[in-house]
Amino acid sequence: QVQLVESGGGLVHAGGSLRLSCAASGRTFSNSAMAWFRQAPGKQREFVTGISGSSYSTITADSVKGRFTISRENAKNTVYLQMNSLKPEDTDVYYCAAAPSFNAHREASWYNHWGQGTQVTVSS
Q: Residue 6's closest CA among 24, 28, 18?
């Protein structure tokens, strides 16, 4: 059974940093695109950043470009999200997702496996 488990969320002051991790199990994801999305209550899930299989390329939302970085460690079947210069508007539940394709996409419908989410709260 495929499972994605996020960790690393928490409370941080504005300007601070957090590193999220997403550990995948059930099969190897080295050739699968992985991504991070975020969602606030009552809002649509928003694409944050994605990485292709084998880390060939990344795509990132303008709202976090230059502050957030996605990376992956295929030997550990794990994807990371390094978040720097955090702002209160980054407060959301962050979800890890895996796609049945090599290249990452911005649309949530492209991804067929999701984690349970981890809360990130940035105080002003």
A: 24
Distance between CA 72 and CA 50 in Å, rounded? 10
- The pLDDT tens digits of the residues spanning 64-102 come to 999 999 999 999 999 999 999 999 999 999 999 999 999
Direct distance between the N- and C-terminal alpha carbons of the chain, in angstroms, rounded to an integer: 40
Q: How many CA atoms lie within 13 A of 8 on its CB side?
A: 18
Classified as helix, coil or strand, 10 is strand
Q: Residue for token digits 């969602």?
A: 39
CA distance readout (Å), 81 to 1, 3, 42, 87, 95: 24, 18, 24, 15, 11
